[in-house]
Amino acid sequence: MSTLQQEILNLVKCFRRQWPLFSNSERTTVCGADCMLMALQLSMAEVNKQLHGDFTVSLSDLLETWNYLLHDKLGLSYENMKETENYADVKKAYDAFLARSNMLDLIDICQKCCCLGLLPEDESIAPVKMLEFISGVTNVQENIGSVLSTPSTDVNRQGQENMKVSMLAKKSVCSYLSLLVNSKDDLALAHILNVPDRGLGREAFTDLKHVSQKRKMSIFLMATSFIRTIELGGRDCASSLYDPLRAHVKGLSNFVNFIDKLQEIVGEILNPRIAGGRILSTVKMHLIKGRSNGDPFCQAVEEVVQDLDLKIKNIIDSQQEILIASTTGVSPTR
């Protein structure tokens, strides 16, 4: 782990220790670099839809706005950069998206830590360093060097494919955990709504997103409300606002009921070590169900789960204070 990566890790740990100073909700989660970019993309698409009727955004516009946004938020000079079209609306939509999702991005957390003096001076992260981390300058340079020095072979291509599978497995498992902690995390939901395949493609997500906006709910709460309505009163009981979702009842029911199963584990098993392992095991079996043992994705999920299980146990062992359900009314697992 590089020095910069360790500094970012310390920053996140500081946020987790001092979360009441950042937010009035203990369920607030960190929006990392990749999620920041996705949030910006969705925000730009939403602004384009409002102004032009198309929920789309070009890659060139996204990257240009991304670069401008980072410089703006970090207070770095952007005199030679042209303000992107509708930037004020996009920035407002971006901030609103994070607020709805109960998330804070790395820049907001870093700036808050500095303002409150929560980190030692030698652990503060300079804006330029934060820009380097979020924009991935170091990784890009390393990748370019690797491409230039190493000829493309079948072995290299296989390695790249394995890396993609590993990243997908990690993103899938972590997104289930993120949604379990923060049900307003629409980005996590977007990653796992159709993983494994539930027949919930782009159309289903778009329908769900539009209905949730009309009802002013998070996407997960909207899905849960819809399925509960169906379960209690049948399809005919759903109001006209639910009409676009009726075609997705089976997939949404599968998704909501699985999250219910994870939440039951959290609420019923008081020992956090046991609950953590049970949650990870349940997610693993859900992701690999129906796949052959030799499937690379199955192996990747197994490795991710083992790594996360160890990390969870280490976190629990290192904690100084233990929550006791009888005195707090909150499950220690939560």
From TrEMBL:
GO terms for molecular function: DNA binding. It comes from the Eukaryota. Gene3D superfamilies: PCRA, domain 4 (1.10.486.10). Keywords: Cytoplasm, DNA damage, DNA repair, DNA-binding, Nucleus. It is found in: Cytoplasm; Nucleus. GO terms for biological process: DNA repair; negative regulation of double-strand break repair via homologous recombination. Its main location: cytoplasm. One of its GO terms (cellular component) is nucleus. Belongs to the PARI family. This is PCNA-interacting partner.
